[in-house]
Design goal:
The protein is mostly helical. The chain is built from 4 helices and 2 strands; from the N terminus they run αααββα. Helix 2 (about 30-65) runs antiparallel to helix 4 (about 80-120). The longest helix is centred in the C-terminal third of the chain and has 41 residues, at about 80-120.
């Protein structure tokens, strides 16, 4: 009968370590976490501001520039319809761009931080 020592926390076949509150604070104050926050904020904040401005422009034009918004472009398609559909297109475009940004820049950094925390480093 042989007895083996338990494998270290975070290795294959063992549950991940449970970091303490102090470890979370230490990671939060690290340069690596600051870089992750910066990568997220430098993408999310400008696009959020741009989209809100674009949306408010659409709302203001709808309320105060009815003649302009009612201008027919072709057939029964007017400026208001095109700009309204542009809102949907912009939403999907931003979601697609964010998913690409997250996969390329955020996820690898977050995974590295998570792996180190689970390994108890």
């Amino acid at each position: 009968m042989t007895t083996e020592a338990a494998p270290p926390p975070g290795s294959a076949g063992t549950p991940p370590a449970h970091p303490s509150a102090d470890e979370f604070v230490r990671v939060q104050q690290s340069q690596e976490f600051a870089d992750l926050r910066h990568a997220h904020r430098s993408f999310a904040f400008p696009l959020t501001v741009a989209f809100i401005a674009w949306y408010l422009l659409y709302v203001l034009l709808s309320n105060y520039a009815g003649g302009f918004m009612g201008t027919k472009l072709f057939g029964n398609i007017n400026v208001a319809l095109v700009l309204g559909l542009g809102q949907f297109a912009t939403t999907f475009l931003i979601a697609w761009l964010y998913s690409r940004h997250a996969a390329a820049k955020l996820d690898p950094k977050a995974s590295a931080i998570k792996a180190r925390m689970e390994a108890g480093e």
